[in-house]
Write a structure and sequence with these properties.
The chain has 539 residues and is mainly beta. 4% of the residues lie in helices and 42% in strands.
Amino acid sequence: MKLFRAFCAALILCASSHGAMAQIVGPGVNPTLSNASLPSARTNLLGSGATVDVTSRQFGAVCDGTTNDSTAIQSAITTYAGIAPVLIPNTGNPCLVSATISVPSNSHIIIDGTVKLAAAANIDVFKIATSAANVTFEGSGTIDGNSSNQTGGTSGGIDSISASNVTIRDLTIKNTRNWPVNIVGTNTCYLGNLTLINGGNSVEFAAGSTNCWAYGLHISTITDHGFAFYGGVTHSGIIGGSVSGATGHGVVVLDDSAQTAASHDITISGVSVSGSTGHGIGVESDNSEPANYNIVISGNTLTGNGLGSTGAGGVLVDFGINVSITGNVISDDGSQSSGATGIKMLGTNNLISVKNNQIYNEGQGSTSGVGILLSSTCSRCEFEQNAIWDDQGSPTTAFGFSGTAGSNNSFVNNTGGGTIGHFYNVTFVASDNVIIPSGSADANALVAAANAGSTTVRNTNNLVELISAGISTYTLVLPGTSAAPFQQRISIACTGAIATLTITPGTGATANGMPATCAANTGFTIQYFNNQSAWQRVN
């Protein structure tokens, strides 16, 4: 019987020039955007260099757009799983299906034509069998979910539940009532160079999927978050590509009451996100669920998001731990009168690093945009070397930083210009450390000052005022008794010589022993003593 089956297979095999096998990104491998990291296309799992055509006489798919080809396609995939790739060719008309095509282990499916879901089928087009392994979808064709003609139920493009070693690449998947691609509880998967259009739910890695990576996806018009790491996803990421027109966030790391497990070790890098109703990228958890942790958000371009949610914009971190937001370009967010935010801290966050981001022209349609919005519940959060500015003729960005800082935060060498109000419109707490580069266009760092040689200090502690070379006259205005500082310390570091240094205490306070000059590459520290209502030099 085996010999007969092999003989029959040989009769219908057709020559193919398909290349090397997909290389799945394994645990511990750092993914990159280089072409060398992408699996090559079209491979026979057995290396025989041949494909099986579903329109062959053996299976008889018609693919004329009206004939139901479900049985023919299912038969071909079931028969040749682990033997040869199955080809769904481009006949000029769709292959119509009314039943979900179940995909077993070791299946290799090449779609060069269109597979279209029949009206009112209300099902997934393809479903990888539970616990299946080593499944590849690829081709130049399309899966069409025909969403406008579905009437209920769950209807998606490709569904994978509890599978392993899954590759989906180069296809277009469109018009799905629900998920274009739904990867659930899957161990090791690769999505590459997919075009995903007009879906009712997110493209997602979900429910404990691990070592799943998406490269160069082009996602548009999703009535949900564009791409989601949803509930307990680990050691996974999305690299490159674009997301536009999502009605939620563009990309989100999310857990909630339906998927309660935290996701961790997630990378979002090099993605272009635009036109989202919510934030371009969100890390978000319900208050009752655990915080997502070990998240890297780097090198993304986020433009024109926050189109429907008040205060939304570039990046949201809501209940996150050890989140790194670095090297992103964020701009032109918002369309609401209440403005938008480039990076927003919300909820209880811990160990958040926000460094080397460029944020500009926030708050479109308003005059209340904010570069970075702080939260009093953000603990051990770092904000360093971010550039925040507004270069529009009519500025929309009110503040560079705004809100109340949490405990043990650091603010180091953030710069900017052109904001309507203060660069730092912030209430700091006693354990915060602030380093301000003076002599720049916004040396008014904490509140508006008359010129580039003065700073007014608000209620803060452990402030390091870095006075740049080239400023010969400098004025420092200190808080008074109304600010109720408690043993507040301010360190002054002069990189250039200050010939005229004026230090003025606020209302109700006195200043003792204040220097009138500062030599180059020197410094000093002053401290407020609450019981004396006095500022004194301490070294």
